[in-house]
Amino acid sequence: MMMNKSPWAIAAVLALFAGTASAAAVYNWKEGGTTKYSDTPRGLKIGKSNVMNVRTQTVIPQSAARPTMPESLADRQAQLSQEIAMRNRQVEEQNAKALEHNQKIEQCNNARSSRRLAEGARNREQLIQKYDEEIARHCNG
Predict the structure, then answer these.
(1) What is the pLDDT of residue 81?
(2) CA angle 102, 104, 107 (to 5 degrees)
(3) Beta bridge partners of 27
(4) Contact criterion met (CB below 8 Å) for 37 and 26
(5) Do 112 and 139 contact (CB within 8 A), yes or no?
């Protein structure tokens, strides 16, 4: 058995659900002594307006902890260029260290190889002493 519901009751229930489903952020700020409300932040900049929850009637104040973004595109590009330059310097330093390390390993291997070859030479004692010094210098002991 179906109950007969009035169209007004159905409309009221639908309006109630539609209001909660579309509860988007509402921004508010003081301007000229009056409080302004809008669905977009003041000047389209989020940090300049409070956010108000319509359902709970609570206001979230502006967050002062937000990092400040440069205002103009040129400022943003300059900041990005500085960050990229810093990263490039770090990569160059890492590459230089890796190259230096690889060269040291190569010099060490060359000194050890030369020492092995010197063991069969006529002036063996002089060469062995020379290559032992190179091994000590390039191979850390």
Answers:
(1) 93
(2) 110
(3) 38, 51
(4) yes
(5) yes
